[in-house]
Design brief:
The chain is of the alpha+beta class. The protein folds into four domains: 64 residues, Beta-grasp domain (Ubiquitin-like (UB roll), Roll); 187 residues, Threonyl-tRNA Synthetase, Chain A, domain 2 (2-Layer Sandwich), CATH 3.30.980.10; 272 residues, 2-Layer Sandwich (BirA Bifunctional Protein, domain 2), CATH 3.30.930; 126 residues, Rossmann fold. It contains 22 helices and 34 strands. The radius of gyration is 31 Å and the shape is globular. It binds one RNA strand of 76 nucleotides through β12, β13, α8, β26 and β29.
Length: 695
RNA sequence: GCCGGUGUGGCGCAGUUGGUAGCGCAGGCGAUUUGUAAUCGUCAGGUCGUGGGUUCGAGUCCCUCCACCGGCUCCA
């Protein structure tokens, strides 16, 4: 193969540092054939000198080539993006004249935004039709052919596509002014690239793509949704179709399975099934009531939180739910946060009272109620403060996005010198508390000054942001930046926790505030006998009790750790004749503060076992003749396959107390049985579940 | 708020081209006394989200509002 002419060969270097010499004009595909025949099937693109390229890319001498297999994160990304193209092609074939906007790959899938002609809209039912058309395109193995066009030519080519035209025009403008490139622009010159599958379909795109549509096929369209053009709610509303694609049917099936699993652990569903809370229509959207069992869980959470706050030196305060508008005028909330405040009630004709959207002004008034000394600082005021926020109708979502919520809110008044130390201790406190509730997968987010709405000087914002940043960085968990996401009065650190569906929820927030102390003219007397301005730190650890409750439910799939479970033990007699012994067991457990139910033998044992397990009771005790005789109980651990018979009562009590005290994630944790090991491996622990949902 | 979808007894669902509602589970009662994921029988329960319209007649068709679901925008 090697010719005498050196300049007719190209030598490229592969990832493993081996080199390969190929004929001049060879493509990545040719390279595959020479390197390893198996790669022809598995590799769909390549990274050449750091840039992603198609397999049709013509290699140059000295190119460094990294192969991208379909079965990799980057490979799937390309697969999904190519599948999005095919979807757009299918849609334009089914709805001639359809406009297509953008269609990127996203985590776990892809989408494409469309606008159909004549005011038509997609329906869920159209998904199947589109999938069918896509399968036809895939069966035809249409090549993805790369084309380069100068701006004018591209504008002509996409003349019938207003969204594409806008993108191209933006590229031209950006190029002219700054030399910046958008995703579709070629860095070499003022050209754009497009990919053509057939005469009927060409799409503006930077690539790379799979070589032909036949390399696709393991996909599924998931849902139709609305989306604004360029994410701007003032612009045109488009229709978005979401889908996903994988390198194999097996991987696709696993993903679909994960989605179903996520649905099973949806806190709204669990809340109904386990009788924990509801949202009666009569009350209004986003306003929850907690039923006895949910109330018990909530109370346990709150009691624990109170205990921990006491240990941390917080003082408990209470404040009303409504206030005259003046308070929120001074604080600036009416101005900056007004659209989230419920309309006022008018009293005596003119005085306006508002439902409070935040607790801070109330705590400020408590601080200001008397002359404060530096000796009192840091002053840490805590309250489970219920606030009401007007949320747009479309955003309300179970317990995680509500209109009435209770924050585990605290405001810390301290000196500027104490600020850093306080921030550090708060962050440690937050992370400890979250871990005590069994959450472990989180990261920190630093939200900086909002561009449009913020009060205070640049200097103050800078100092506050730096203090938060330095503290966050010292915490040894990932920190990401959220530019412009702060509150109007200060920057914030939030703790983001991942839920079962893989969504991250903003839970705890810590905000540093120089503004409200000024607005309310707060002061303390220092050791120098002069007045000084305190700094305020706003913080909520759960975030809100409601959201935290919902996230915990999903995290545990309803199988709450024993210490949080509304019913911790169910005692089932085999026959009625075992009742008196069972009642004694019940009393002994209750005396230990354990929440225990007795279930009469009105139904077969297996029916009662089933019921108890459906309710996700951590410990189900079956008690029969041998137990009465031996002073034992038969223990069914939640999550274990088989019961443990004849456990001495004292040893059971010791174990469950240990469980509750230790906040075990699962009751099987401390019982050394043959299955308990299996159970942990099977993914009943939150750790295992998280791994499951991360993909 | 916007786009699309949905709304039938506590829950999950059926209800054919418009002819005045069914099933399973749960619940009440009775029987069954059961060693590990559903014992049997029986009874009760719905002005079909709301208000209006079309029609001789509407759960079924049209409109309004409300709520929920999936997203977008926004957020604890």
């Amino acid at each position: 193969m090697v010719t005498a002419e050196a300049n007719e060969n190209v030598t490229v270097r592969l990832e493993d540092d081996t080199t390969l010499t190929l004929d001049f004009g060879s493509t990545v595909s040719d390279l595959l054939g020479q390197a390893d025949k198996k790669l022809i099937r598995s590799v769909i693109a390549a990274e050449v000198n750091g840039d992603e390229k198609d397999l049709s890319y013509v290699l140059k001498n000295g190119d460094k080539v990294k192969l991208i297999e379909a079965a990799s994160e980057r490979g799937r990304h390309i697969l999904r993006h190519s599948t999005a193209h095919v979807m757009a092609q299918a849609v334009t074939s089914l709805w001639p004249g359809a406009y297509f906007a953008i269609g990127p790959a996203i985590e776990d899938g892809f989408y494409y935004d469309f606008s159909l002609p004549d005011g038509k809209h997609f329906t869920e039912a159209d998904i199947e039709k589109i999938e069918e058309a896509m399968r036809k395109i895939i069966a035809e193995k249409q090549p993805f052919t790369r084309e380069e066009h100068e701006i004018d030519a591209a504008l002509h080519l996409f003349g019938a596509q207003p969204f594409k035209t806008e993108i191209i025009e933006n590229i031209a403008v950006a190029d002219a002014s700054k030399g910046e490139f958008s995703a579709e622009a070629s860095p070499e010159s003022l050209t754009v690239t497009a990919y053509r599958n057939s005469d009927a379909f060409v799409d503006l795109c930077r690539g790379p793509h799979v070589p032909h549509t036949g390399a696709l096929g393991h996909f599924k369209l998931l849902k139709v949704a609305g989306a604004y053009w360029r994410g701007d709610e003032k612009r045109q509303q488009l229709q978005r179709i979401y889908g996903t694609a994988f390198e194999s049917d097996k991987m696709l099936a696993e993903h679909i399975n994960r989605l179903a699993e996520a649905e099973r652990r949806d806190h709204r569903k669990l809340g109904l099934e386990l009788d924990l809370f509801s949202f009666p229509d009569e009350i209004g959207s986003g306003l929850a009531v907690f039923h006895p069992k949910g109330g018990l869980i909530r109370k346990t959470m709150e009691d624990y939180s109170r205990m921990r706050h006491e240990e941390e030196g917080y003082q408990f305060v209470y404040s009303p739910h409504i206030t005259k508008g003046d308070l929120f005028e001074i604080s600036g909330h009416l101005n900056w946060f007004g659209e989230n405040i419920f309309p006022p009630m008018e009293i005596d004709g003119e005085t306006k009272y508002y439902l409070k959207p935040m607790n801070c002004p109330f705590h400020i008034l408590i601080f200001r109620s008397k002359q404060r000394s530096y000796r009192e600082l840091p002053l840490k005021l805590f309250e489970f403060g219920t606030v009401y926020r007007y949320e747009k109708s479309g955003v309300v979502h179970g317990l995680t996005r509500v209109r009435g919520m209770t924050q585990d809110d605290s405001h810390i008044f301290c000196t500027r010198e104490q600020m850093t130390e306080e921030l550090k201790s708060i962050l440690t406190f937050v992370l400890d508390l979250l871990r005590e509730f069994g959450l472990s997968d989180f990261y920190l987010e630093l939200s900086t000054r909002p561009e449009a709405k913020a009060v205070g000087s640049d200097l103050e914002w800078e100092e506050a942001t730096k203090a938060l940043h330095d503290t966050a960085e010292a915490m040894d968990i990932p920190l990401v930046l959220d530019e412009g996401g702060g509150a109007f009065y200060g920057p914030k650190i939030s703790v983001q926790a991942k839920d079962a569906i893989g969504r991250t929820w903003q839970m705890s927030t810590v905000q540093l505030d120089f503004q409200l102390p000024q607005r309310f003219d707060l002061s303390y007397v220092g050791s120098d006998n002069a007045k000084h301005r305190p700094v305020m730190i706003h913080r909520a650890l759960f975030g809100t009790v409601e959201r935290f409750f919902g996230v915990l439910l999903e995290h545990y799939a309803g199988a709450l750790p024993t210490w949080l479970a509304p019913v911790q033990v169910k005692i089932l007699p085999i026959r009625d004749t075992h009742e008196s012994y069972c009642q004694r067991v019940k009393q002994l457990l209750a005396e230990e503060g354990i929440r225990v139910d007795y279930v009469q033998a009105k139904e077969p044992l297996s029916a009662r076992i089933r019921q108890a397990k459906l309710e996700k009771t951590p410990y189900v005790l079956a008690v029969g003749d041998e137990d009465v005789a031996g002073g034992t109980v038969g223990v069914n651990l939640r999550g274990a396959k088989d019961p443990i018979r004849a456990v001495p009562l004292e040893s059971f009590i010791a174990k469950i107390k240990e469980d509750i005290r230790g906040h075990w994630i699962n009751p099987t944790q401390g019982f050394v049985t043959e299955d308990s090991v299996d159970v942990q491996k099977q993914g009943t622990t939150p750790e295992a579940r998280d791994n499951h949902s991360d993909l």
